Amino acid sequence: MTIHLVATELTVRGAFRASAPLASLGDLRADGDALRFRTGNDEVALMLHPAAPRWVAAIAKPPPTLAAKLGIAAGTRVLTLGTIDDDGLAAALATGTAEARDPELIVARIDDQDELARVASSHRTLLERRVPLWVVYTKGKGAPLGETAVRALLREQGLVDVKVAAVSPALTALQFARRLSR
Fold first, then answer.
1. What distance in Å separates the CA atoms of residue 164 and residue 63, rounded to the nearest whole number?
2. DSSP string, 150-176
3. pLDDT tens, the chain, 182 aa long
4. pLDDT tens-digit map of 116-160
5. What values do phi and psi take at 127, rounded to 5?
6. How far is CA 35 from CA 7, 18, 26, 44, in A?
7. Which positions ≥6 away from 21 have C-beta within 8 Å?
């Protein structure tokens, strides 16, 4: 049996297969070696042995905010590029301080390959100083700019992807940084 905990869901795979939204889990507790909870009308017990209390803590812990996932804290100097068309992203960016001259982080909302190339080229100096670049783009098969294109274009520029973050149901983000010299 394999158990996976993601931001919004607990999934069990093996002889028994099920998933449950974290918000639906009630009466969550460690009971000896078992992780116990209710979901809907069902009482569930997963035998996790000594790990049960750690799983309870992990499930009960609130997920990080989008600002935290992007590395934006109060006072973080952020250079924002593109049109911010998502309320959650706008709120996360508002946690930091808008800064064009000496940013600690670049967040680019882009859905066009030519625009992505322009951003990488025009901000080369910042990227060479290892200022991280978050590329926020529409996710899904019909998206105008896909993950493969983003990675390929920025890897050609000597950047490597170091993090991924879900922004919203419609948007995802990849963080890139300059490759360390060997």
1. 15
2. HHHHHHHTTEEEEEEEE-SSSEEEEEE
3. 889 998 789 999 988 888 999 999 999 999 999 999 999 999 999 999 899 999 999 999 988 899 999 999 999 999 999 999 999 999 999 999 999 889 999 999 999 999 999 999 999 999 999 999 999 999 999 999 999 999 999 999 999 999 999 999 999 999 999 977 65
4. 999 999 999 999 999 999 999 999 999 999 999 999 999 999 999
5. -65, -35
6. 18, 15, 12, 8
7. 8, 9
- Judged on CB neighbours under 10 Å (0-12, 13-18, 19+), 120 is buried
CA angle 71, 123, 87 (to 5 degrees): 45
List CB contacts of 131: < 8 A, sequence separation 6 or more: 103, 104, 105, 106, 123
Those residues whose C-beta lies under 8 Å from the C-beta of residue 97, and which sit 6 or more positions away, are 75, 76, 77, 78
Nearest to 175 by CA among 156, 158, 160, 157: 160
Query: Closest Cα partner for 46 from 8, 7, 5, 77?
Result: 5
Pairwise CA distance, residues 122 & 129, whole Å: 14
In one-letter notation, the amino acid at residue 44 is V
